[in-house]
Amino acid sequence: MTLIVSALVSLATPNLSFAQGNRAASVGNMDLNLKKAIEIALAENPTIKVADKDIQLKEIADKEAWQALLPSVSASLSLSHSIQVAAIKTAMGEFKMGSDGTTTATGGLTMTLPIYAPAVYQNMKLTKEDILLAQEKARFSRLDLINQVTKAYYAALLSKDSRDVIKRSYNVAKENYEVVDKKFQVGKVSEYDKITAEVQMRSMSSSVTSAETGLNLALLRLKVLMGVTTNIDININDSLKAYEKDLTLVKADVNENELSNNTSVRQLDMNQNMLERSNKLLRTNFLPTVGMQLQGSYTSYSNENWNVFKYKYSPSSTLALSVTVPIFQASNWTKLKSNKLQIEKLADTRTNTMRQLSMAAQSYRQNMLTTISKLESDREAVKKADKAVTISAKRYDVGRGTILELNQSETALTQAELTYRQSIYDYLTNKADLDYTLGRE
Q1: Among residues of the chain, what percentage have pLDDT more than 90?
Q2: What is the pLDDT of residue 153?
Q3: Are strands 289-303 and 102-116 parallel, antiparallel or unpaired?
Q4: Residue 170: CB partners within 8 Å, gap ≥ 6?
Q5: Which of 34, 217, 413, 427 is an S-S bond match for 12, by CB 3.0 to 4.6 Å?
Q6: Chain Cα centroid distance, residue 202
């Protein structure tokens, strides 16, 4: 019994690394079921909010990508004072390029417009792939949280049911002790029977305390995953036994199509698409680019004072069309080779991931089949153990049985009931892990 309770406590011990923050809520009670627990977690858990913000950032990056095709406009103002200007000396004489001690003022406006920019086009497509990847990562966060909350909820149910079973066993042990104690007072039973009954009662009292601790820890972990404060009292009016009708047979084999919706596989496929798009982006380094620039300015030369508003300005404007043709840059070939190796590496990673996921899914299904096959035996064991308790109690009442038989039968019933609920829990957690592995919403 001590080993069973210790296992329940360790099972319920929360992993506080899941905690990113708590929901601000007032003290109160909350009636909870699995659906409500998942809804609250998806609404309040900070990891989901972070994933949604990542999508918003990727959408902003997508806007920045196509905005590179828009014209850019810049203005410039300059004021320069010539202390001594340079002179051009020729055979015909010396010509100064301006006057010493004068000021030149210039104001200009430049507009640049890309006409043909293949790198920008590929980058626009790449950012759209990045948005899809961010959405898939957000889906991964949701599926992972649903998986954690589901298993934490089932763990809380197992702790609650186990607490109830052990508490019932304690009440029986307490009643047995009271009966034995009364018989001892009138000399009908020996002191050994009284001591044995008292030891059984105190042992079960300790087990009840441990079971209560396990339940509190299981509820604490569930609260952390849901993102609610620990001062909220959770009431779970549910039982593992209610899920017994949901236990169904499944085939053990797993095909590749079933794993295509797995979020890790989908992310690998999207990364593959992004690497292929990056390959096209790198190839644009070998393509020409065409741009147009329109520039206008007002300039005033050789002014002898600093009053720019009285200068005489002369306008000028230019329209330039430029074509840039890359001829040779060694790093472009190196980048293409590196990109190709990354694509091959990702393909190998996907193959290995598929094998591992297939093995995990098959393991979960095999565990579910094993649980169903032994559940009927566990159910029958509970019935037989309950009958054995009734028989041993009657035998002891008529003096044909011993207190040891009575205690052993009660312990066997408790063990059978705990094993029965553990089997249901094992099936449900394996099913939750299978749903997560197959990427079921």
Answers
A1: 49
A2: 94
A3: antiparallel
A4: 201, 204, 205, 207, 208
A5: 217
A6: 44
